[in-house]
Amino acid sequence: MNDDAYLIAALRLASGDDPIPARVSRAARELYSLRVPDVVTADDVDTTVTWKVRSVSGDDGMRLLRFAAKEYVLDLEVSADDGLINVAGQVTPHPGAGSLVDVRTPSATASRGLSATGQFACAGLPPGWVHVICYRPGQPPLATRWLRVRP
Fold it and tell me: Could you please report the per-residue DSSP string of 78-129?
């Protein structure tokens, strides 16, 4: 397709002559429903030096990931077992009493309270996209980016 064809297609979409396909509209609504207002997104931190592993993916299929935002660090250990995925992690420092973590996929959410040391674990999640959000009392939620996990 040449540049003129792209321009004509874009103009047709902009003018409303071509309706948005139903599957695209449905997918957009589903994605929008997964958003978390006022979330603080934690940045990826290089774990190869921290944990002295050769790569982020270990030989056993376990992935060690670290995210950081402001004074908080969120460590995740993601693994696969029988076609399902397991997510364990720790929020450091502990964000306080009443904190909880949601481990989300597009089709399911597992909520867990944090242990006294800030740890949590969820097992048996469907493979695919995973997102971890820590809800902290009196503060905006802290979240990782969406991660693609394959068994």
Answer: EEEETTEEEEEEEEES---TT-EEEEE-SS-EEEEE--TTSEEEEEEEPSEE
Predicted model pTM: 0.72
Q: Give tens-digit pLDDT for 120-140.
A: 999 999 988 999 999 999 999
Pair 118, 97: CB distance under 8 Å:
no
Kind of pairing between the strands at 72-81 and 63-69? antiparallel
Q: Which domains does the chain have, with CATH numbers?
A: 3-33 (no CATH), 40-149 (2.60.40)
Spatial contact of 126 and 151, defined as CB atoms under 8 Å apart: no
